[in-house]
Write a structure and sequence with these properties.
This protein is α/β, with parallel strands linked by helices and about 350 residues long. The protein has helices at about 10-20, 30-35, 40-50, 90-105, 125, 140-145, 175-185, 200-215, 230-245, 260-270, 285-290, 300-315, and strands at about 55-60, 60-65, 75-80, 110-115, 130-135, 150-155, 165-170, 190-195, 220-225, 255, 280-285, 295, 325, 330. The protein folds into two domains: about 75-170 and about 300-330, Rossmann fold (3-Layer(aba) Sandwich); about 175-300, Response regulator (Rossmann fold). Helix 11 links the parallel strand 11 (about 280-285) and strand 12 (about 295). The longest helix has 17 residues, at about 200-215.
Amino acid sequence: MPRPAPRTPRQRLESLIAAQPGQRLPSERDLAQRFAIGRPALRLLLAECEGRGLIRRRHGSGTFAVDPQVPRLARVALIIDARIRLGDDPFFAVAVDALQHELQAIAAQCQLLRHAPGQTPPAPGMVGDGAVLLGSACGELLALWPPEAAVVAWLIAAPSSRLGRASLIELEDEAAGATAVAYHLDQGCTQLRFVGHDQHPSPRARLQGAQRAAAGAGISLELVPSGMNYEDGVAAAERLAATGAFSRTPSGLGLIAANDWLAAGLHVGLARHGLSAGIIGFDGLPLAAALGLPSLAVPIATIASDTISELGRLILRPGLAGRRLSYALRLQPAQPAREP
């Protein structure tokens, strides 16, 4: 009886993908060793499999085998709070870009819609297979839409009784606020000021975490009321400079900005007066790295990838309830400022 011909690396890779639908594959290094081929050859096989829709690469997470039983998302609505101006809000601009990239990767049509508080919600037919909500004004849609709608909502405060078929993306903002305080304490700061406001869930939780951590360390922390964009940061720097809280030499005062856009304004505003201070922000945006500012980074690319996967999970099982998905913010240390 003839012996079966040995399977090729391509066949072995396809078998591995088929055996673990929806699961993360081993690293490229492990796969290359398993199939006894070089990594360049393996990458060609992976690119071929990706082109055939057998695998999907998620930035920062790895390579995943596609589950053929998960319904394909053909059309998804991205519904954004009408009060958010993407040109003035780098966080949401990056988030929208990341979501659109994920939808393009699966050849899904993306429709951008706006929703203002009290506005008539989009008809279910406009939503397509599912919807992603961004911004607090979109929270009211959770109660207005029919229960069968598959929805993933970013950073929207909602009680569990209102979730229905909606899954919520949440950030561990309070813990991040405490980490910001710990960072400044490690830098030798003896006084702290939180620049921002507590009118929205994320900055409020960041402030509360910072206040608790500062109180626990016996350190003074004051709130400097401010808006949340770059110009507000410049204006807050002007007010701080006028108080005489800074000297022209490094001091023990550390600033915690409610987000990176605000932190950038603070940094530039102080520099106009020849002043500097330890500043840490939140979100981990490229502009923070460009200015050499530390930040508590939100894993936006990972959240975007998980969001699209979560929509697929919801439409696969129509009776499935939504859930809360929580993400930690990681310290992105200060880097040397880039040359202009």
